[in-house]
Amino acid sequence: MSREFDETGRPESMEEREKIAEQGLRWKVVLKVWLIAGTIFFLLTGGFPWASSGLMDAIMGRRTTFPFWETLIYHYALAFIDTVVLCFVVYRFKPLGAILLGVFTGITILYGLNFLIFRTILHFDPATEPDTFLTHLGFSAITCATYKGMSIPRVMSSGLKAEKEEHHPPSPGSEGGKFKHA
């Protein structure tokens, strides 16, 4: 298999870039994904828009009576733990397999632990169980899809420009892709 690289030494083919992403966990991407998914599911307290109250009073879908700042801190702490677990589980897989495995992990392990700790041991309100389940389902899918999408190295813009010019010569009246101004 021949490997094609751009002038910066980065692989140009999608397969090569996916292989790089599957070699190890990319911590900068994990942190970005945590902030993205954590914020989405802090704002969507019921897991999805049609199940949310808009009150931002839930920790990963589980309603609380904690003050706002406490709820915010606990939510992001739990979202960080869940993000690290999910990203660690899925980084070795292709995107579709990663999302499916991530959703399975999110529902069975992460939701299962959440249920065990909050419902069984701490006796939180059972009325929010559907919201908590939906939040874990959506959080897992979005976290895994976002991680896989962001973890694949991008082709440098200069490589894309060279490829574009090679296949699409400049149009008449333009010089090197830039239009002349009269």
Describe the structure using short key phrases:
182 residues; mainly alpha; two-stranded antiparallel sheet; two-stranded antiparallel ribbon; 6 helices; 4 strands; elongated; disordered C terminus
Task: Describe what this molecule looks like in 3D.
This protein is mainly α and about 180 residues long. It has one domain (about 25-150). About 60% of the residues lie in helices and about 5% in strands. The termini are far apart.
Q: What's the SSE blueprint?
A:
Elements: H1 14-21, H2 27-43, E1 58-59, E2 62-63, H3 68-90, H4 95-121, H5 129-151, H6 157-167, E3 174-175, E4 178-179
Antiparallel strand pairs: 1-2, 3-4
Helix pairs in contact: 2-3, 2-5, 3-4, 3-5, 4-5
Which range does the strand content fall in? under 5%
Which structural class best describes the helix and strand composition? mainly alpha
Estimate the helix proportion, in percent.
55-70%
Overall tally of domains? 1
- The total of beta strands comes to 4
Calculate the mean pLDDT score and round it: 79
Number of helices: 6
Helix-strand sequence = HHEEHHHHEE
- Radius of gyration, Cα only, in angstroms? 22 Å
Shape label? elongated
What strand order characterises the main sheet? 1-2
Q: What is the terminal-to-terminal distance? A: 49 Å
Quick overview of this protein structure:
This protein is mainly alpha-helical. Helix content is 60%, strand content 4%. The protein has six helices and four strands.
